[in-house]
Structures are given as C-alpha cells and as structure tokens.
Amino acid sequence: LVLVTRDNARMALGALMQGDTRERDLSWLDWSLVRDLSRDGKTVLFDETGEGGGDSYSVYVRGVDGSPAVKVSEGAGYALSPDGKWVIVSKVGDRHAITLVPTGTGTPRELPTPGLEVHDAEFFPDGNRVLLIANEKDAPIRAHVMTLAGGAIRPLALPGVESRGFAISPDGALVVLADPDRRLFLCPSDGGPARPLPGVDPAFVPVAWSADGRSLATAGQDGTA
C-alpha cells in the first residue's frame, strides 16, 4: 500500500475594475504576486518568484485590460514610478542595491545602498526620492529616504519598523510606518520626529493613503481590509 500526495500551489492575480461584474484573471505563470498599480489604474506590476519565474525570478508589467504581460527584468519587483516609466527591482542575491529598470526604452540604473540590506522600496510622489525599508548588519529594520540624484540616503526618525506595511502621503511629506509592536507612527520625510497615530488596530498595517490625504487604507494579516 502506497499513499501518494501531490501539491500544486499557485499564486493568482486578479482585478475587479469599476463597472466589472466579475473579477479579471491577470495571472501569468505560477506565482503572480502583485507589487504595484500605476496611478491611472491601467497597469499592474507583478513578479514571478515560483518555478515559472526561474532561478533569478522575473518582473512583469501588464495592462489590467488583459493584454499580454511584458517582462522588464529578472529579479523581484518593488514599485512603479509615478510616471510609469521605471520599476524598482531587487536582483536575487544582492540586497545591497536596487536597480531602476525602464518599462520601455532606456538603460537600467543600479543604485547601491552601501551598508544596507533592502527589504522593500517605494517611490515618493515626486519621483525624485525612494523610500527604502532596510537595515544595517545586525541592526533593526528602519525606513530611509534615498535621493535619486546623487544617491544620498538618510534614515527616518523611527528607530525600528515592520518590514511590511507602510504608506506615503500624496504630497510626500509624511510616511506612515508600523513599529515592531505594530503601533502606527507618522514620520516626516524630511527627518522630523515621529508622532503616534492612535486608533488603529495593531492587527492591521498601512497600505495606502487616499488621493486627498484625509484617510488611510489598512489591511490585516488575514487579508481583511
């Protein structure tokens, strides 16, 4: 008597647009993990880090209209630039740099992060700065601001943050971050002191600001929002 099991795990990517009556399946290979959505809501950034993505993984952009996905780079994707022309990519095996990769024509640009191991990154609304969620060796994870012109990096005031869950205000002046106890703080992007943001369940992490900057979307670890 032989008992055999077979697992076929997949990560699916779907979109429900205004006016749709059912969800659109935008999955591409076997592990389509959404990373970002363009400001106009027409383009999704995702990566494939399963078997289909290969040993070095693969980063794609795809129209939510269901048009074919376009591979822009190897690695894992972090974010789309506000104008949709660039993607922040982390190459497998190198967390001490991020790479700006064009979604169309152009030359990739590597941005070293000396002494920092990067876990996540996001563009500021002006497109001239990047928020890095990173840590020095054997040090807590912190949020840092990188200026793309020159590559200068400086930490924000909060001394320790969760590696997942943050949001940048529409004007780029504030960043909402969760500390290791999942308490939320407002951190000025210019380096000013962090202020507690009360009234949010610690089970939820920040995801995005509303366009008018008056409300904050959060998500729970179980997928609730």
How would you characterize this protein structure?
This protein is mainly β and 225 residues long. It is 0% helix and 43% strand. It contains no helices and 20 strands. Strands 3-4-5-6 form a four-stranded antiparallel sheet, with no helix packed on it. Strands 7-8-9-10 form a four-stranded antiparallel sheet, with no helix packed on it. The N and C termini lie far apart (47 Å). The model has no long low-confidence stretch (mean pLDDT 92).
Structural descriptors:
single chain, 225 residues, mainly beta, four-stranded antiparallel sheet, 20 strands, globular
The count of helical stretches stands at 0
Helical coverage, percent range = under 10%
Strand order of the main beta sheet, please?
3-4-5-6
Shape: globular
Radius of gyration: 18 Å
Regarding quaternary structure, how should these chains be classified? single chain
Number of strands: 20
